[in-house]
Amino acid sequence: MTRACRLCCLIAAPGLLAGACTRRPAPAPRPDAWPRIAVYEPAYHAERIGPLTLQVNDSARVDSVGPGWFNIVYPAYGITVNCTLTRGDNIAEVLANRLERLERNLGGRPAQQAAWNGRRLIVAPTALKTPVQFLMTDSVGWVLSGVAVSQWNESTAVDSVSPQIEALAADIAFMLK
Fold first, then answer.
1. Could you tell me if residue 35 is inside a domain?
2. Looking at 24-28, 45-49, 60-64, which range is the least confident one?
3. Residue 14 located in a structural domain
4. How many folded domains does the chain comprise?
5. CA angle, 163 as apex, 71 and 156 as ends, to 5°?
6. Which of 160, 151, 145 is nearest to 69 (CA)?
7. What pTM was estimated for this model as a whole?
């Protein structure tokens, strides 16, 4: 070994030894994804509301507002489903009024609709203030309608709340059956 190589080794050795003796914290993984949004389990109980018995999610609560008005509250979602039970002699007129209201709540946003046996479920994930709505009738004397009103603002990313919208739509579809 030449004299210059030995000199370089002597100069570099203390720095290498100091670096080897210094403990560095072990690397810790960082979260790469958003936390998962909690959704309620699909478990239901019967709620008697006027002439109806509805199946409501066990984690939601029903608040009576007044005659013909009640709310189904989903606290963890920040959503309240405002419901109206309307009795009338002219069911066709009541249905037309309710359908117009549901359409206005969409604000022109696209929606998926399912209809069966006098029941209609409307899901519009991009209508963040009113993402889920419904309507049902016995075609004789009463109409039940409702709209889910959220606390989300228009800047909320739809994909971040879509699990809650889907779970709520599933709950309401179960209730309508």
1. no
2. 24-28
3. no
4. 1
5. 85
6. 145
7. 0.78
Residue 100 belongs to a domain: yes
Asked whether residue 39 is assigned to any structural domain, the reply reads no
Mean local confidence (pLDDT), 101-129: 92
Total residue length of the chain: 177
Domain with 168 in it:
47-176
- CB burial readout 122-160, b (16+ within 10 A) else e: bbbbebbbbbbbbbbbeeeebbbbbbbbbebeeeeeeee
Q: Around 91, how many Cα atoms within 13 Å sit in the side-chain half-sphere? A: 13
Residue 91 structure tokens: 């069911």
The CATH number assigned to the domain holding 116 equals: 3.40.1000
Q: What is the CA radius of gyration of the chain?
A: 29
